Amino acid sequence: MIPNSWEGVMAVSFAFSVVSWLVNTRFGDRKKLKKINKEIQAFQKELSEATKSGDKKKLKELGKRDSEVMDKTREMMMLSFKPLIVVLPLFWVAYAFVLPAFFPDFIVDNLSFYLPSSIMFWEPWKNYLGARGLFIYALLVFGLSFQLIEKIFEKVKKNG
Q1: Among the residues of 82-130, which ranges form H helices?
Q2: Core-most of 31, 84, 147, 152, by most CB within 10 Å?
Q3: Phi and psi for 29 in degrees, rounded to 5?
Q4: Residue 118: pLDDT band by 50, 70, 90 thresholds?
Q5: What is the largest CA-CA distance in the chain?
Q6: Higher pLDDT, 138 or 40
């Protein structure tokens, strides 16, 4: 690592993003999540249409399926949280120990724009960034980039 450099912080952020993405693809069953989500959306659409039309028979029928849909919602939520069991402790280690140890004096001063601060009461907006702040913003950018790349690959794979 290059001590107190933005390249080092970005490298740690990129490495964490890769690990996080791998954990999410490995432990977060995305196909099952998408399937459950489609089923729930279909149920909600049916319920909305039955409510708008005032079809009491259909509403009663959908009411019987309500507990099944709630179970699917719970399952979907648990599938979403499964990767967090691994990712959150890794984030904590990186944020609380790795960044302060390798980049104790890192700061980007006098940015030409202001960013929201984690110290909202004392300084809600700031024009500087420490290692932890850069780490979080870089994670956001890398995470969104990975999702975009993944969607592009899915479309290419689907179409070609």
Answers
A1: 84-93, 99-102
A2: 84
A3: -70, 90
A4: low
A5: 69
A6: 138
Average pLDDT, the chain: 84
- Spatial neighbors of 4 by CB under 8 A, at least 6 apart, are 103, 104, 105, 106
Is this model's pTM higher than 0.90 or not? no
57 residue type, one letter: K
Residue of 80, 95, 102 lying closest to 139 (CA atoms): 95
Query: Tokens 């904590």 sit at which residue?
Result: 92
Q: How far is CA 66 from CA 39, 46, 50, 160, in A?
A: 12, 12, 14, 39
Query: How many alpha carbons fall within 13 Å on the CB side of residue 91?
Result: 14
